[in-house]
Design goal:
203 residues; Gyrase A, domain 2; Alpha-Beta Plaits; 2 domains; 5 helices; 13 strands
Length: 203
């Protein structure tokens, strides 16, 4: 769980995780997408030049509809608010993407903040993934209300998170502050045991 000398926020969790079931009996799989780049972008969504600059630097257009996402290869952009987005990048391209964004937005009323070191992504997939999340979250996660390409900020087991659905399995990603990562992983493990749980560090 290390990358170029870094330590994953959940390294200790995965080293000591117990109480899991055989993979063929699992209703939910818990993992982590460690070391992704997390870039917070602020800007005016009515400024087409701002939008074009971001897309030119990243290859992904910022979603303008509330609580939606956009993806292009390894990059994903999540709507967080009327003038705020989170861009997730591959681990080895966070710095170059951040630099490209800052260069593209020079002189514009916009801001790019690299928050990669303060967050991690917990993955949860399987036929009971939605049931596990529903135990600690007030969002309506039913497929009629929340599906692939959507995201939302909420509290999950008292931790502030951003949840996005990435697959119909269903598969979810839970973005959480690094300091809450192990706590939330432990909570999700306990919440998932009744459904048959597999812990997979690779996500």
């Amino acid at each position: 769980m290390s990358d170029a000398g870094q330590e994953s926020p959940l390294q200790r969790f995965f080293a000591t995780a117990t109480g899991v079931c055989p993979a063929d009996e699992a209703g939910v799989t818990l993992g982590e997408r460690a070391f992704l780049g997390h870039l917070n972008i602020r800007g005016n969504p009515s400024d087409q030049q701002f939008l074009d600059a971001v897309e030119g630097a990243t290859g992904v257009g910022l979603p303008l509809e509330p609580n939606t996402t956009a993806e292009n290869g390894d990059l994903a952009a999540l709507w967080l608010g009327p003038d705020e987005w989170l861009v997730l990048t591959a681990p080895d391209s966070a710095a170059s993407t951040s630099e490209a964004l800052r260069d593209a937005l020079t002189g514009r009323f916009a801001a790019v903040t690299d928050v990669s070191g303060g967050q991690t992504v917990i993955s949860l997939r399987g036929r009971h993934a939605r049931d596990v999340l529903a135990k600690g979250c007030t969002l309506d996660l039913h497929p009629r209300a929340f599906g692939v390409g959507q995201c939302a900020q909420s509290h999950l087991a008292k931790a502030l998170v951003t949840i996005r659905q990435v697959g119909d399995e269903p598969s979810f990603e839970v973005i959480v502050r690094r300091s809450f990562g192990e706590y939330l992983a432990l909570w999700l493990r306990d919440a998932g045991l009744e459904y048959g749980l597999v812990v997979n560090a690779s996500g």
